[in-house]
Amino acid sequence: MGSPPSAGPFISFLTDFGPDGPAATCRGVMLSIAPQARILDIAHSVRKYAIRDGAFQLWSVLPYVPVGVHLAVVDPGVGTARLPVAIRAGRGDILVGPDNGLLVPAARRLGGIEAARALENDALMLPNRSSTFHGRDMFAPVAAHLAAGRSFDDVGPPVDPAALVDLRFPEPRVAEGRLETAIVFIDTFGNVVLAGEPPDLTAAVGPLQPGARLDLAFGADRNGSVRQSATWQQTFGAVPEGSPLVYENSSGQLAFADNRGNAATRLGLQVDRPVTITSA
Amino acid sequence: MARPVITFLTDFGPSAPAVCRGVMLGIAPDATIIDVSHQVPRYSIVEGAGTLVFALPWMPVGVHVAVVDPGVGTERLPIALRVARGDILIGPDNGLLVPAAERLGGIVEARSIENRALMLPAISSSFHGRDIFSPVAAHLATETPFEAVGPVIPVERLVRLPVPQPRVAAGELETVITHVLVFGNVTFAGTPADLEAAIGPLEPGRPLTIDFPAFDGQAAVREPTTWAETFGRVPIGASLLMADSEGQLSFADNQGDAAARLGLARDRPARIAGA
Questions:
Q1: Which residue of A239, A247, B25, B54 pairs with A243 in a disulfide if CB–CB is 3.0 to 4.6 A?
Q2: How many beta-carbon contacts under 8 Å exist across A and B?
Q3: What is the pLDDT of residues B195-228, one digit of tens each?
């Protein structure tokens, strides 16, 4: 792996387990196997069972994390036929978790999926396996063994990367005078990440100067549709407190927020809701 | 050489543990500290003890500090327990540590923490987590031997929590909710063997009925459910009864929150029968 030998094994860790016991239990399992490992908790507050939220957080965070082993568990299908997998990415990382799409967007972003294997080597797992806590019994010990130097090839037989469960984030569509996009993710500030990047928006509505006025139409759900005017800005503080803005977020994506407010709560927004942006 | 491991559980919430971590790292700078939980419901010794039972068997051998201590500053003893696996558990003598110590092979020796040299110089009457338990744990994680903490106390004198037991009745198992976990999954006293003794063999897919009598302001609830191996064996939103990862009877909604849906809480009685 690419990290210098003195750094020791590195494991990042993301789950929907919440802050308490289960994530700590997995940390204990990993440190029992790889006592020198450094474990970086990315999040354990992923919305429960929300595979795509977890996938988005991995996609956003892992490019900034050292090369290493990345353990992720958002696994509503635990104990069913879904495969446990390890994926080797072009950058040299190994991602470990369920084959439900969770790992795939991040692996693509880390240089692409080079190889995938099913986790089948019992010698790398805990001796007694439950049917409901594979994070502890299977994923954490395999991740720790990999971090401690076990070969990727030891985890189990190869899986055709094309056969992995895929997960794609919504894509924008440039139409005549409007960008048809959708809500990809809502962060803890209530800031709303939209599908697409600034060039997609300029392709639809023309050049954007700070202060340019935009209309956002959030598609109908059971509370009806919502229209919102906002301005294009570089950052939050460019508009008065409580006012909305559209901006390029720190990952280069289009985003919508209230300055020092919670736009998602104010407007009752949810992931996947369609949004149409036009010039005002 | 592996770094010494200290695990840490409290009911302090998110910020006060940092002070204790600072104290521990000041004494044992190489320690790895694993936070088991700091969100134990305030003053709930039973919940804290349950979380330790779930977590500590999977921790590396080390020093485990736990502070859920409504009696802080009273005559309740601060104690250290050495267990058969080689771990040391540190905390108040109020029952918090004993169930986990038994899961780690049983208590080999118990000592009362009295050695002032291992504590902070000034001891408050309200924050023993910072002034006594953290520094003692950190000293034990470095070079200090277990015997240095204070005099031996008889194991049978330790405070113990009552352990709820299921009762096999005619055609049903009378049990009680012992824990409500983070996904809203509910743990009952008893194992599948207890339930089979009451109602016969448990085949996957067997329909069951759980009766929750009226309790603590909550109306009675009758819940039809299914014996299943894991969550995904029933439709999303449907409930199931299974053996949890600890081998205890556990009731859950697949991708839902069963405790919130039915208003369930710890100590609520339940009767499980065939449908």
A1: A239
A2: 95
A3: 999 999 999 999 999 999 999 888 999 999 999 9
More confident residue, B75 or B103: B103
Q: How far apart (Å, rounded) are the C-alpha atoms in residues A147 and A26?
A: 14
Whether the full predicted model's pTM is greater than 0.95, yes or no, is no
pLDDT > 90 fraction of chain B, expressed in percent and rounded: 79
| Closest chain A CA to residue B41 | A20
Q: What is the pLDDT of residue A4?
A: 41
Could you report the predicted ipTM of this complex, rounded to two decimals?
Answer: 0.75
Chain A contact set for B51 (CB, 8 A)? 20-21
Query: What's the per-residue H, E or C state across B216-269?
Result: CCECCEEEEEEECCCHHHCCCCCEEEEECCCCCEEEEECCCCHHHHHCCCCCCE
Nearest to A130 by CA among B207, B257, B242: B242
Q: Would the CA dihedral through B107, B108, B111, B117 be positive or negative?
A: negative
Please give the pLDDT value at position A79.
81
How far is it, in rounded angstroms, from Cα B81 to Cα B112? 9
In Å, the largest CA–CA distance within chain B is: 63
Residue B253 C-alpha, separation from nearest chain A C-alpha, in angstroms? 11
Distance from CA of A180 to the nearest CA of B (A): 31
What local confidence, expressed as pLDDT, does residue B163 receive?
Answer: 86
pLDDT for res B2: 66
Encode B161-181: b = buried (16+ Cβ within 10 Å), e = exposed: eeebebebeeebbbbbbbbbb
Q: Which two tokens stand for residue A19?
A: 């802050």
Contact A52, A167 (CB under 8 A): yes
Q: Which of B245, B250, B255 to probe by mutation at the A interface, max A CB count within 10 Å?
A: B245
Gap between the Cα atoms of B188 and B191, Å rounded: 8
SS3 B138: helix
Average the pLDDT over A100-121 and give the result. 97
Structure tokens at B13: 């919430």
CB A216 within 8 A of CB A276: yes
Rounded to the nearest angstrom, the minimum Cα separation between A29 and chain B is: 5
Q: Does A79 contact B244 at a Cβ distance shorter than 8 Å?
A: no
With contacts defined as CB-CB under 8 Å, which chain B residues touch A79? 229-233
